[in-house]
């Protein structure tokens, strides 16, 4: 058993990983990711997975239900961390698999793989709680900067975390971005990680005052211009685990069941076979307790209180 | 044959594994909610009036068993033998619909998962046309307080709360909005100068779809019959002395009606909770908004019912402040994690100026 296999076994059990080990893993991952393009080429058959959000036990279910990394190729569309209780273990497990089976795992950056967002939405706090310092968080953030921005399957399916950008209408343009940085607040890199599809006639500004919404017209144009037939993205919670829009030209894949341990949604992964057929696998969240009533997931139970 | 766009691969029937899982989950929930029954006590006093049992008696005073629980499958109350503890029924999908009756007042609640795509389509295209819906809607949840004899009820649910959201521009923007828009403008003019074909005109930087993306709602509950029985009387106050007493809580629930993380720019959440005691109840519906580096808002509605007097008081308070001002208050308090405090709606409500208060009553 190699060292990497031992770490993988520990991570799968949610055990503590020493800080030096995390440091080495992160360094090795950076070297590996550095050589990848902004848009990685991936061959079929491949399984596309959406947001994970630190739900380690559900990530294990995902692998179990979809064949496992020993037999299957995977693309993860980002948002590995934040909100769940096991952001670190989930992210490190994916990194270990990437190091152990480099050609089987493609990791794409999500809008949560940034310093700013992880400080607010849980990953930073989790690391400080588990290690007493933020070092491990910093090592992970360094890796975030090297994650690719998209993937293309058999030149036919474009994968990205959020959506399209009006500044970059071809995959080749996306390849020219200098991605090795914190995700900026504006520009194409930001759009790819943040924008959402909606029923709009043209590019339009989100009412929040930042971020784009794109509609069927933009999707159709992108598909035609790039000779692809599908945009696979994540980023938005879907009760059924996946949602196809715009006559099947775009799909949202969501892989965190019972999101935040309270939404009651199922999760999905999308398998693309050699003929580009789509096959969705649905899975549910693990039980919060094992058969003898011990907590697997430390859920926050609402306490009766004499609120005023 | 292409299987593209095929329906989800779910078996048509319910398989045994799911059924067993549901049964197990139900059993666990019931177990978890069963009150710890004292090993000696309750039945012991009549048989053995010793010093220890007298002590137990003072801890557990005799409770007038006038409440009726309407969920016969639930575990019984240790005090009176009737069933009061919220508990799910063994149905598929799992349903949690507890209810209690005191005098002619019945209080019930329901908790279900977030809306599915079909329900969302219906809400978006018909029920709430014009609103881009929040990320998580617990649209089948509610807390209901009803009195059939007085022909009056009030319910708190997500649909009516969202109907109160304005379908116009709130004027609120995320902190980096002007930077973002300016950078797009610069990009556009640079593109124009290079005669570079670009898809985005300055029109794209206008907000076309106008609605209040902060989902601010002044929802105070849905009355039935719809003609409100409340009378404005701002001199009224909630009887805090009565509510501060730790009377035994017979029924308790706490639920989210909707929540949105504003694309990671903060939070917008509507939460409602209730506690029912032998003589009165208190419900708190709280809308909490935090737009990071911009503002915070807490809109509270408290509903109080005194069962024996059939008196209802509803008090609404609005708190609002600039993010930086509230953050500065936290610095004065010298605790170490300001961001955590700004995630805590109770702390924010206590440290943000009140901008409005209204009180209404019903005396039947």
TrEMBL record, chain A:
One of its GO terms (cellular component) is protein serine/threonine phosphatase complex. Keywords: Hydrolase, Manganese, Metal-binding, Protein phosphatase. SMART domains: PP2Ac. One of its GO terms (biological process) is regulation of TORC1 signaling. This is Serine/threonine-protein phosphatase. Belongs to the PPP phosphatase family. PROSITE patterns: SER_THR_PHOSPHATASE (PS00125). InterPro entries: Calcineurin-like_PHP (IPR004843), Metallo-depent_PP-like (IPR029052), PPA2-like (IPR047129), Ser/Thr-sp_prot-phosphatase (IPR006186). Pfam families: Metallophos. GO terms for molecular function: metal ion binding; protein serine/threonine phosphatase activity. It comes from the Eukaryota. It comes from Saccharomyces kudriavzevii (strain ATCC MYA-4449 / AS 2.2408 / CBS 8840 / NBRC 1802 / NCYC 2889) (Yeast). Its cofactor is Mn(2+). The lineage of its organism: Eukaryota, Fungi, Dikarya, Ascomycota, Saccharomycotina. It catalyses: O-phospho-L-seryl-[protein] + H2O = L-seryl-[protein] + phosphate; O-phospho-L-threonyl-[protein] + H2O = L-threonyl-[protein] + phosphate. Its EC number is 3.1.3.16. PANTHER family: SERINE/THREONINE-PROTEIN PHOSPHATASE PP2A-RELATED. Coiled coil: none annotated.
Automatic annotation (TrEMBL), chain B:
One of its GO terms (cellular component) is cytosol. Transmembrane segments: none annotated. InterPro entries: Phosphatase_reg/MetRdx, TIP41-like. One of its GO terms (biological process) is TOR signaling. Belongs to the TIP41 family. This is TIP41-like protein. It comes from Saccharomyces kudriavzevii (strain ATCC MYA-4449 / AS 2.2408 / CBS 8840 / NBRC 1802 / NCYC 2889) (Yeast). The gene is YPR040W.
């Amino acid at each position: 058993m190699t060292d990497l296999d031992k770490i993988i076994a520990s991570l799968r059990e949610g055990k503590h990983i020493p800080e030096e080990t995390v440091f080495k893993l992160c360094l090795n991952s950076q070297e590996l990711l550095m050589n990848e393009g902004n848009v990685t080429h991936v061959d079929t058959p491949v399984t596309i997975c959406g947001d994970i959000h630190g739900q380690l036990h559900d990530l294990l279910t995902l692998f179990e239900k979809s064949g496992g990394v020993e037999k299957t190729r995977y693309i993860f569309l980002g948002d590995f961390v934040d909100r769940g209780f096991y952001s670190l273990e989930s992210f490190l497990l994916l990194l270990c698999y990437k190091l152990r089976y480099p050609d089987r795992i493609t990791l794409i950056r999500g809008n949560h793989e940034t310093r700013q967002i992880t400080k607010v939405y849980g990953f930073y706090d989790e690391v400080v709680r588990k290690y007493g310092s933020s070092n491990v968080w910093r090592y992970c953030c360094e890796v975030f900067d090297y994650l690719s921005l998209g993937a293309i399957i058999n030149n036919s399916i474009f994968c990205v975390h959020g959506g399209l950008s009006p500044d970059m209408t071809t995959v080749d343009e996306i390849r020219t971005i200098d991605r090795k940085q914190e995700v900026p607040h504006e520009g194409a890199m930001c759009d790819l990680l943040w924008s959402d599809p909606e029923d709009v006639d043209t590019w339009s500004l989100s009412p929040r005052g930042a971020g784009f919404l794109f509609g069927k017209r933009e999707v159709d144009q992108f598909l035609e211009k790039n000779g692809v037939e599908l945009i696979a993205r994540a980023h938005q919670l879907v009760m059924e685990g996946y949602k196809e829009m715009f006559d099947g030209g775009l799909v949202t894949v969501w892989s965190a069941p019972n999101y935040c341990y309270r939404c009651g949604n199922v999760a999905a992964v999308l398998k693309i076979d050699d003929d580009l057929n789509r096959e969705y696998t649905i899975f549910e969240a693990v039980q919060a307790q094992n058969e003898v009533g011990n907590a697997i997931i430390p859920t926050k139970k609402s306490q009766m209180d004499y609120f005023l | 044959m292409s299987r593209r766009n095929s329906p989800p691969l779910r078996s048509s029937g319910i398989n045994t594994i799911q059924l067993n899982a549901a049964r197990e989950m139900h059993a666990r929930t019931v177990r978890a909610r069963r009150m710890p029954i004292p090993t000696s006590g309750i039945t012991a006093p009549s048989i053995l009036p010793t010093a220890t049992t007298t002590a137990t008696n003072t801890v557990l005073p005799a409770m007038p068993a006038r409440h009726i629980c309407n969920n016969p499958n639930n575990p019984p109350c240790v005090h009176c033998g009737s069933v009061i503890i919220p508990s799910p029924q063994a149905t598929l999908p799992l349903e949690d619909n507890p209810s209690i009756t005191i005098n002619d007042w019945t209080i019930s609640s329901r908790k279900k998962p977030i809306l599915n795509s079909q329900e969302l389509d219906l809400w978006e295209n018909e029920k709430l046309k014009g609103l881009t819906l929040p990320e998580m809607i617990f649209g089948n949840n509610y807390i209901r307080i009803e009195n059939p004899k007085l022909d009056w009820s009030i319910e708190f649910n997500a649909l009516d709360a969202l109907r109160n959201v304005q379908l116009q521009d709130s004027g609120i923007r995320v902190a980096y909005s002007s930077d973002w828009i300016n950078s797009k403008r610069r990009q556009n003019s640079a593109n124009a100068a290079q005669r570079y074909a670009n898809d985005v005109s300055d029109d794209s930087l206008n907000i076309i779809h106008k609605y209040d993306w902060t989902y601010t709602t002044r929802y105070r509950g849905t009355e039935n019959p719809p003609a409100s029985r409340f009378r404005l009387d701002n001199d009224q106050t909630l009887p805090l002395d009565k509510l501060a007493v730790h009377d035994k809580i017979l029924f308790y629930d706490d639920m989210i009606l909707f929540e949105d993380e504003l694309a990671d720019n903060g939070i917008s959440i509507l939460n409602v909770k209730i506690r029912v005691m032998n003589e009165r109840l208190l419900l708190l519906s709280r809308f909490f908004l935090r737009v990071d580096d911009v503002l915070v808002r807490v809109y509270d509605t408290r509903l109080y019912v005194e069962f024996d007097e059939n008196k209802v008081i509803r008090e609404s308070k609005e708190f609002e402040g600039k993010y930086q001002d509230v953050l500065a208050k936290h610095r004065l308090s010298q605790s170490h994690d300001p961001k955590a405090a700004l995630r805590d709606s109770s702390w924010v409500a206590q440290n943000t100026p009140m901008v409005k208060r209204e009180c209404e009553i019903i005396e039947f």
